[in-house]
């Protein structure tokens, strides 16, 4: 991985190769749709704001922290995730039908969408570029252990890896293992430890956050 | 359709690049086209399956060259033109045709936010019998439709076990082409890694794929 390469640099070639500047094309499309009465600019602003500032992986982290702290909640989350997530006030677009899969010392779950970019928006927000990109989509099903190694996660031989390919309208959220040494922590402190990567299954939650910080 | 969007199992796509502190949108236009896709869906001229199909119809070389949201620009333009909400001339000129009707009213901010909070469930509360039971062995059809499908190539003609029954859902293969929802059971089907990839997969590892009744036969 070359994690410090900015997105714009990675895609510089792509941007040069497309016939017209997407920024101009999108601006023109927006003004046409506004003029035809098909979209309301303020509604677009509100949607962008919602996904930039309100709907993101902190939601999922709170769900995970509560599951770690409250065994009855965890049970509800694993048996009926939609209702349990709704209890926390989350739900909606691209999270209408959620299944939560639990990591343990014996099982490691990893989520991918090989066909497009399906991802549980209400609890994780919009997916990062790597999740939507060809390298991850192509190899997560074929070589999950190799993919995890690229994220700095080496799994013991005896751990069973389960890859979940989101081919339908069911969205998957990984319930990571609660790290040792967090016994006395409250939900808020626990939530601060939970990373997006751990909830996709490409990382683990660690007290020091050294494993795949993101 | 057997195009490059169906990339599970391919080699040669390069290393996974994880960006630290990645912003939700990398440029303003990404947020605008994302929001326009959501907002335009409210006119109900297409559905989520049709919008996925519009993006997978992008020719393979272009699909791979484009960034993610460039595909969303291309897909949305195709949907708008095909559904008649605007013409290609209007889009190219960014000007409504003289005398064209103005749609009213577009969703306001509260309506747009309410729509994403409610979501668009694909589950259907209809009494359709399940053709398979949890624990049953099944085989996927070896099928290669030219239209939309959610049965990835790597899982065609393979045997697996029904892991769970998710309930009754809209069928994308017909819905994407406006041929009806044909609601049916969707199952999580567990495939042994070795069934899909041979000896190079670890014995214990597996891939779970969500599949519709119409993709499956008893094994």
SSE layout and pairing:
The complex is a heterodimer of chains A (214) and B (219).
Chain A: H1 7-10, H2 12-17, H3 22-35, H4 41-54, H5 57-69, H6 71-79, H7 81-87, E1 98-102, E2 107-112, H8 121-124, H9 129-132, H10 134-139, H11 144-150, E3 160-165, E4 171-175, H12 187-193, H13 196-200
Parallel strand pairs in A: 1-4, 2-3
Chain B: H1 28-41, H2 48-56, H3 60-65, H4 68-83, H5 88-93, H6 109-118, E1 137-140, E2 159-169, H7 172-175, E3 184-192, H8 193-197, E4 206-212, E5 216-218
Antiparallel strand pairs in B: 1-2, 1-5, 2-3, 3-4
Helix pairs in contact in B: 1-4, 2-4
For this structure, the CATH topology of the largest domain in chain A is Nitrile Hydratase, Chain A
Coarse structural class of chain A: mainly alpha
Please summarize the sheet with the most strands of chain A: 2 strands, parallel
Distance between the termini of chain A: 14 Å
Helix content of chain B: 25-40%
Radius of gyration of chain B: 20 Å
Q: What is the straight-line distance between the termini of chain B?
A: 25 Å
**Total beta-strand segments of chain A:** 4
Oligomer type = heterodimer
CATH class category name of the largest domain in chain A: Alpha Beta
Total strand segments of chain B:
5
State the order of secondary-structure elements of chain A, H for helix, E for strand.
Answer: HHHHHHHEEHHHHEEHH
Task: Please indicate the percent range of residues of chain A in DSSP E strands (runs of 2 or more).
Answer: 5-15%
Percent range for β-strand residues of chain B: 15-25%
Q: Which residues of chain B form runs of ≥5 with pLDDT under 50?
A: none
> How many domain modules of chain B?
2
